[in-house]
Amino acid sequence: MTTATTTTTSDRAADDHFLDAPKAEDLASLLINKERPPKPSALSASLTFGWRTVLKIKHVPEQLFDVTAFPIMMVLMYTYLFGGALAGSTSEYIQFLLPGILTMSVVMVTMYTGVAINTDISKGVFDRFRTLPIWRPAPMVGYLLGDVLRYVLASAVMLTVGMIIGYRPDGGPLGVLLGVALLVIFAFSFSWVWTMFGLMLRSEKSVMGVSMMVIFPLTFLSNVFVDPKTMPGWLQAFVNNSPVTHVATGVRELMAGEWPAADIAWSLGWSAFFVIVFGAWTMRLYNRK
Amino acid sequence: MSDALGSDALGPIGRTVTMTGRRIRISARDIDAVITSLLLPLMLMAVFIYLFGGAIDTGTAYVTYVVPGVLVLCAAFGGSTTAIGVTEDMKGGIIDRFRSLGVGGTSILAGHVVASTLRNLLSTALVLGAALLIGFRPDASPAGWLAAAGLLTAFVVTISWLSTAVGLLARTPEAASGFSFFMVFLPYPSSAFVPIDTMPGWLHGFAEHQPVTPMIESLRGLLLAEPVGNEPWVALAWCAGILTVSVAASAALFRVRSR
């Protein structure tokens, strides 16, 4: 009898508990008293990730060394140590060198995009991004948009130092802006190469190593420092067709107040190539990761 | 090795030889460092000869002008990497082990320096071989070659001792590696790559009177059989001065650090 009574009591308790349990709809109405927010647009999501990249710069200011100190050292060293020997005078050489070094330093900075992606992958935060209901390429585009600020900052620093030591762009503010715009477009496009390597390679060190192996020959074997006419014939063939040469010439002439249509076309053509080929490859890797 | 080190039969020279052997074996295993110490001077030489050579007027073939500077840069960079090895030893606790075996600081530090000198003379010879392949044509007499080799050896020994002092001063290998960057940069404001008279006037004073310039000018003169004046003596005076300070500083720092 005791057993029966106990059973009856427990059944009743279970029924009461069942009756008291709130329904899912009731909970939802309590918790969500307004409509679900709309899915963020592609632009909004990309800008958010771009802002994240900017905040990372704020928290790790050492990464700005390559944007500021290194290019300044390069421009001072080449102008004052080699300018007289290469162009007859330092004041003459700075007119040729500064747009070239500007191109070189911004192109070198592009590799940090790949490093940042690789770091995020190794930390696991990347998996979190992929679960979010956002436009698929937003994290990638965000990295690149954040880096655009870095490119603009590098350009501003270099131009300021250049002006102090005697650089005078004949193209005026408009020529300078057009030159920087061409450079930033190219750098943004070229960064897709490193996003691909950032996804492909296993460690940050590997990404840095591969980047250096590509960037150093590409920037040095160009017309950044000297006119290719003074180089051996076999080297001229490579230098004259290097994307960095086209960009450096484009930037140099735009800042000098000229309109180098062919070099602008080549620079934009290379930019399109990098986005189409490496952008597509990056997204393929990203979707499979 | 411990038995050999501990035995009284092995004098200070024997212990130094053992320590040198140890450092050479460690260097041989560090493939990255070996490649860097060879590739950096070779790359710089190629960049200056092929990229800038045609644009720089030195009154002679640019390869002839630049190679002595590259040899000094190679020796300076190679010698400066000793700092990293010394710092790693001081940090790793191996020094206490050696001290317990009765090995004095002189043998330990001299081992680093001798190994560095041998390593760098080899890498400098390889760089010189590469220079000969790409068109460097020295006119030196046997005496000139001997004098050039002697000067370069004195320079490597000096930089290695200076680097040893820096290695004892630095607390981490990363900090010590900064010294090698300084040593790579030092030949730039000198006559290594371009004639000093092409530089701005305010740079002349430093470029003409820094320790690397007389060494480069001496090597250039000796290898090309040109008059060198008193440049070799100035270079040796610099070496003697830096060496004296470096050895004294190394001894004092070693006593402090291994106390």
From TrEMBL, chain A:
Signal peptide: none
Domain ABC transmembrane type-2: 62-289
Subcellular location as annotated: Cell membrane; Membrane
Keyword tRNA processing attributed: no
Domain of life of the organism encoding this protein: Bacteria
Entry's Gene Ontology BP terms: response to antibiotic
Coiled-coil ranges per UniProt: none
Transmembrane annotation, as ranges: 64-87, 93-119, 140-167, 173-194, 206-226, 264-286
Claim: Transmembrane is one of the keywords in the record: yes
UniProt entry keywords in alphabetical sequence: Antibiotic resistance, Cell membrane, Membrane, Transmembrane, Transmembrane helix, Transport
Alphabetical list of Pfam families matching this protein: ABC2_membrane
GO cellular component: ATP-binding cassette (ABC) transporter complex
Membrane topology: Multi-pass membrane protein
GO MF, one annotated term: ABC-type transporter activity
Family the entry assigns: Belongs to the ABC-2 integral membrane protein family.
Name listed for the protein in its UniProt record: Transport permease protein
Organism field: Streptomyces inusitatus
UniProtKB/TrEMBL annotation, chain B:
An annotated GO BP: response to antibiotic
Transmembrane region(s): 31-53, 65-87, 108-134, 146-169, 176-196, 233-254
GO cellular component: ATP-binding cassette (ABC) transporter complex
Domain ABC transmembrane type-2: 32-257
Localization in the cell: Cell membrane; Membrane
Annotated membrane topology: Multi-pass membrane protein
Keywords (A to Z) from UniProt: Antibiotic resistance, Cell membrane, Membrane, Transmembrane, Transmembrane helix, Transport
InterPro entries: ABC2_TM, ABC2_TM_bact-type, ABC_2_transport, Nod_factor_ABC_transporter
Keyword Cytoplasm part of the UniProt annotation: no
Matches recorded under Pfam families: ABC2_membrane
Keyword Transmembrane helix: yes
Gene Ontology MF, one: ABC-type transporter activity
Family the entry assigns: Belongs to the ABC-2 integral membrane protein family.
The protein, known as: Transport permease protein
Originating organism: Streptomyces inusitatus
